[in-house]
Amino acid sequence: MRVLIVDDEPLSRRALADVVSARKDIEILDSAGDAFEALETLDKKAYDILLLDIHMPELSGIELADRLNKRGGSIPSIVFVTAHDQHAVAAFEKHAVDYVLKPFSPERIHEALDVAIRRTESERAAQAIKVLPQLETLLSKPTKIAIKTKGRIVFVDPADVVIVEAQGNYVLLQRQSGSYLLRASISTMAEKLKQYGFIRIHRSILVNSSYVEEIQPWTTGEYALRLKGGKEYTVSRTYKNNLRSLARFWVGTESFVRE
To answer: Which residue blocks in 27-120 are alpha helix, DSSP H?
Structure first.
């Protein structure tokens, strides 16, 4: 099969290429650093499968897929390689569109390639028509969240929230400057903020993954997690597997998170 990898991150492209090149059924394997380079490559060669990232500068993976669909002709089977929130993933699953969620394993890449190569051209076109408008809606949703505090409704950018901590029947949203105390459960906040990159590291604490700078395993099976600025928290054994979502992929010989 002929495969084109489209991803703006060099490490991600290399990790994908290492997995794909190990297969015996690969005839051609090329890569592109952005969607425009991919379009130029696709004008010169025909491919069976695109391993396509969603978030890329200037032209996203979804926009690239939409252009391919609109221009007609042979449409490669598209496997989205994404670190996007679970709502987008659910859309992929519902419409049987192949995807790989970062951080990915070699087994998951091989599974997606096996499924993708079995798709006929008509199936590829039909699935693209179904899913693209809904993905565009999902990915264009407002980024701010509305909270009620002291009789007012305040709009907060979740990217400004560093941690969320349970305090009895309330939760404290801590920003880099200032905080908000809300009457809500930590479980409710975990579900609502999951799509914005928040992970639960303790029964009473959520952290914004974009502020995590370092984790360190302890012999007890717990982890020390350090945020930008130096503040540290303990990741309990119950929630340590949530740490896997901190990185799009793992480079190393040992397991990222110890079992």
So the answer is: 35-44, 61-71, 86-94, 106-117
Q: Which helix (H) or strand (E) holds 17?
A: helix 10-21
**Integer CA distances (angstroms), 246 to 30, 80, 201, in order:** 28, 19, 12
136 CB-side CA count, 13 A:
13
Query: Cβ atoms within 10 A of the Cβ of 91, count?
Result: 19
User: Are 125 and 35 in contact, with CB atoms under 8 Å apart?
Assistant: no
Q: Has this prediction a pTM greater than 0.70?
A: no
162/173 Cα distance (integer angstroms): 8
- Written as tens digits, the pLDDT of the chain (259 aa) is 899 999 998 988 999 999 999 999 999 999 999 999 999 999 999 998 999 988 888 888 888 888 887 776 677 888 888 776 554 554 454 333 577 777 788 998 998 898 888 775 556 556 556 656 655 555 555 568 888 877 888 888 888 899 999 999 999 999 888 899 988 899 999 988 887 889 999 999 999 988 998 998 888 888 999 998 888 999 988 988 888 777 655 555 556 566 5
CA 202 to each of CA 174, 186, 187, 220: distance values in angstroms, whole numbers, following the listed order? 16, 10, 11, 15
At residue 173, what are phi and psi to the nearest 5 degrees? Answer: -90, 110
